[in-house]
Design goal:
The chain is an all-alpha fold. The protein contains 5 helices and no strands.
């Protein structure tokens, strides 16, 4: 099936925006709806990576799924027209993990990012 570039761009943008929502997890272990969505998105992404490429998981991480994956050059957003990807969002979340930051604010999300 052919999917338009606009649709795939909107999908990427939507995933990035949801992951970058900054909200701590509840101390009682009950996550807010936003954190539950973020955790579910990361679980979906890690499960998609268990399947052979190309698939939407690799696309969301910024790989060019129209070519062999090893030929993809991952760049910082804005360099050579590179858009912000889920990989950029996950890396940013991991940098926020460095003590004394959100490692303690979002432990479940942190664990999923490291996977």
């Amino acid at each position: 099936a052919v999917v338009s570039t606009q649709s795939t761009g909107e999908l990427m943008q939507s995933f990035v925006e949801r992951l970058e929502t900054d909200e701590p997890e509840a101390a009682d272990g009950v996550s807010s709806e936003r954190n539950t969505v973020r955790q579910t998105m990361l679980k979906l992404l890690t499960s998609l990576l268990d399947y052979a490429p190309p698939n939407v998981g690799y696309y969301l991480l910024g790989f060019d799924i129209t070519r062999p994956l090893h030929k993809t050059v991952l760049q910082e957003p804005g360099i050579q027209g590179c858009k912000r990807t889920v990989l950029h969002s996950v890396i940013d979340l991991l940098f926020k993990e460095l003590p004394p930051n959100s490692l303690f604010d979002t432990p479940a999300l942190s664990h999923l990012c490291y996977q």
